[in-house]
Amino acid sequence: MYYKNNTRKINRQKKGDLSGPIYTILMIVFVIVAAIMLYNYFQSRTSVLTTQAQISIVNPQLAGNVYSVTVENIGTTPITITSIAIYPPNSQTPILEQSLNTELNPGQSTSIVGTSQTQFITGDKYIIVIEGQTQGGQEIASESISIAQ
Known about the structure:
This protein is of the alpha+beta class. It has helices spanning about 1-15, 20-50, and strands at about 55, 60-65, 65-75, 80-85, 95-105, 110-115, 125-135, 140-145. Strands 1, 2, 3 and 6 form a 4-stranded antiparallel beta sheet that branches. It has a 4-stranded antiparallel beta sheet with strand order 5-4-7-8, with no helix packed on it. A hairpin with a 4-residue loop joins β7 and β8 (about 140-145). The longest helix has 30 residues, at about 20-50.
């Protein structure tokens, strides 16, 4: 009888499903595959995020009829500055529009200096809009408010 019970145990193990070590190996394989899939997903997302086009107006100054605006490329791709426009208070018509063609690499800055035919009124707030374009054709813009001195 002892022999028969022992035989049944052996037979059950043979008839049963996969053993514990095989389950462990399958789980390890599953975790590795899931990790590779997550890695690939996040790699594709970061490659999209690493090519950002962004400019910043750093130091706008308006005095008399002279303007000086420093623009910095704070993105990760080269940008060509294409235009500057200055709008007076409560107006949608610019008092100054100028076309430009200045290329800025990431981290670089440039100063745009010029004169306007209209005098800036001391104490008034003017809106400065800088537009640019990436080599891929993406258009970008930055806006700042400056108080005339």
